[in-house]
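Hi P.,

Sorry for the delay on this. The queue was packed all week, but I finally got your sequence through. Input first:
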Amino acid sequence: MANTLLQTRWKDYLFLTVEMQKFLGKNDLKMFFNLVKQREKIQSELEKISNKAYQESPEGKKILLQIQQANMELMNQFRLAFNNMKRRKNISHAYEAVVIAPGSFINQKT
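Then the structure:
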């Protein structure tokens, strides 16, 4: 019974990780952080009920490998999103500097 619960919770954890990737890719940060909270809740449950026997079983190893891969993909996507946000912020600041500079103007025809 405990292994079935562990298997279900690990699968839920994997599902949420994959969903987090989707919403991060869509820049839907509200849903992304909602999923983060749900995943944290499952992680807390797993810490209470987890056992080494399941994690070392072929089934457990398989799901944990899938989770590791999904986490790596999520981190890569997070870095990409962060770099894009940083680049947009830098571009925005560059335009603010042009507009704010005394006596400067932007030719609206260009």
